[in-house]
Amino acid sequence: MARRHWLDPLARRLLLASGQLPATRTTPPTAPASPCRDSAQADQQCEVERELLALKLRQEPARPLRTAEEVRHAAALGWRLDVNRASAGDWTRLPGIDTGQVDLLLRLQAGGVQLSGAEDLQRLLDLPSAQLECWLPVLLFHWYGQPATPSPAEIRIDLNRAGPTQLERLGLSSERRQRLLRERARGPFRDLADLQQRLHLPPDLVENWIGKVRFSAGQAGPELPPARRSA
Description:
Shape: globular
Largest sheet: 2 strands, parallel
Oligomer: single chain
């Protein structure tokens, strides 16, 4: 007969789930449980999963939430997303959101638009009800008297007009900067998806630009050398 571990059941489940304790090969036979016992076991399992998520978030505070269950656990741990002040990093933590939706939300926020409730968000993003229900536990809809004022670090770089120096600040290599400028000369970029498709950029690079870039309708003219100061 396998010896019972000295840890209490909650701690043992947490260590097993995180891989810090090897699972035993033999499992004792289980007797039919009563509904009350099933409920208690479900509550205990939920607590284990919540503690495990808390451990992961301490190691990686900006970790994306993968499932609706993780969203509920994050809400229980106190994390909230302020819809009318959320950053790109906040939005991209929600499961199922795409880059176009995040970009739209940030552009509207920069223009002073505020959402008053879940129905506004659902209509704006054309969200399925199941996806909205998944996000609801962490969403806050605070109304602000004044629109958000972006800091200098939050001012977006216009990729249809930016010069090499600005592009370098975005982490582009010299080769990619030159490719962007050549492709832009053929026609302005419409959005991040168009940019990625035309330049064949990796997804992680493009995701890092959400909320940091914009695309004007015009096209950059030729760059002129700086004027010399008269002596």
